[in-house]
Amino acid sequence: MTIAVGDMKRPNGLAFSPDEKLLYVVDTPGALGPRTLQVYDVVDNGSRTANGRLFFNAEPGGTDGIRVDVHGNVWCAFSGGEAEDGVAVFAPDGTMIGRILLPERCANVCFGGIKRNRLFMAASQSVYSLYVETQGVLGG
Predict the structure, then answer these.
(1) Is 51 contained in some domain?
(2) Which residues contact 52 (CB under 8 A, 6 or more apart)?
(3) 110-115 contacts: CB < 8 A, separation 24 or more?
């Protein structure tokens, strides 16, 4: 067993890009630092990561579970209050391209269904689902 990412305070959710060349990892350090999503290059035939960098800063809210769609967009379960609770969607360059607002904080997301185009969102007290115009990465 080897350490793939060792420069985080409290790693949480993770996901790979469709080509598995990028690893996205959520850092939720609490009072120890900012809540961020980091991205790393997967190198040496998948045996290690390199070039860790900020994908986005989730402050003042926070992200938890993440998934990636077939276009490389990152879907993040999000919490942060009335204007942020739900899911935030980021393009591969880190630009936010959409939000799905929920009436409660969201902790995890996954794609399901026969076509992997149904987004399931696990929130504080409910599970929501929504058909979307993309598919989740196979196996993720």
Answers:
(1) yes
(2) 5, 7, 38, 39, 40
(3) 110/65, 110/67, 110/136, 111/67, 111/69, 111/135, 111/136, 111/137, 111/140, 112/136
| DSSP-assigned beta bridge partners for residue 56 | 37
Is residue 23 in a domain? yes
| Structural domains of the chain, count | 1
22 part of a folded domain: yes
Whole-prediction pTM? 0.93
- Write out the residue range of the structural domain in which residue 22 sits: 11-131
pLDDT tens for each residue of the chain, 140 residues long: 788 888 888 898 899 999 999 999 999 887 777 889 999 999 988 888 999 999 999 888 888 899 999 999 999 999 988 888 999 999 999 999 999 999 999 999 999 999 999 999 999 999 999 999 999 998 76
Domain of 19: which CATH number?
2.120.10.30
User: What would you report as the CA-atom Rg of the chain, rounded to the nearest whole angstrom?
Assistant: 14
Q: Which two tokens stand for residue 136?
A: 């989740």
